[in-house]
Amino acid sequence: MGFYCDVILPRLCDLAMRNQRLQPYRERVIGTAEGRVLEIGIGSGLNLPFYRAPVTQILALEPAPKLVAMARRAPHPSMPVSFIEASAEAIPLDNHSVDTVVTTWTLCTIPQAATALGEMRRVLQPGGRLLFVEHGLAPDVSVRWWQDRLTPAWCCVSGGCHLNRPIRSMIEAAGFRTDRIETGYMPGPRPMSFMYEGSARPN
Ligand SMILES: C[S@@+](CC[C@H](N)C(=O)[O-])C[C@H]1O[C@@H](n2cnc3c(N)ncnc32)[C@H](O)[C@@H]1O
């Protein structure tokens, strides 16, 4: 299990996340980041090339050492990037110390996602923004049926990814108000491809 989780799984995660269909989501979401940015679960660093001014600094949080090593080798933007090997459930940053928090396809996997969202809210400036693109619970009953049934097995092989998390209500329950959200299926198997893209501010 150790070799699978430590070596194989990070490679599989990197391969899956290189899907070209995800690129337009990355461009749109990262393109609206500003100031001092905390990216949650940066993985192998696939968002890094999309950061532009007015971003001034990127704090790249990732608990998996293998993925941190891969992200260090990814193409970097012009602003400074600092890596933080930690979990989103306990972010080692001061209250109100970042302008933007970015999460792309991590809320499906973070074990204590509600705690992590509380931490994201804590570190955000009162006027800051949470930018997100996530897959999650679909609106269609038949797709939800499959999401609920597939999640236990999917979780085991994918390193903890849940197909059926209600992303919008999780974000709002953590004390954010959504100021933009777009949802819809991306091409691909429907249980895995219902996307939530948008931004939210601390209440
Ligand atoms: C599907 S990958 C997405 C990677 C990256 N965000 C991207 O868009 O390519 C999920 C990521 O969440 C990270 N992750 C898992 N548990 C986490 C936690 N407790 N705190 C922060 N990140 C976590 C994983 O290590 C992995 O990098």
Automatic annotation (TrEMBL):
InterPro entries: Methyltransf_11, SAM-dependent_MTases_sf, Thiol_S-MT. GO terms for molecular function: S-adenosylmethionine-dependent methyltransferase activity. Keywords: Methyltransferase, Transferase. Residues 38-132 form the Methyltransferase type domain. GO terms for biological process: methylation. It holds the Pfam family Methyltransf_11. This is Phospholipid methyltransferase.
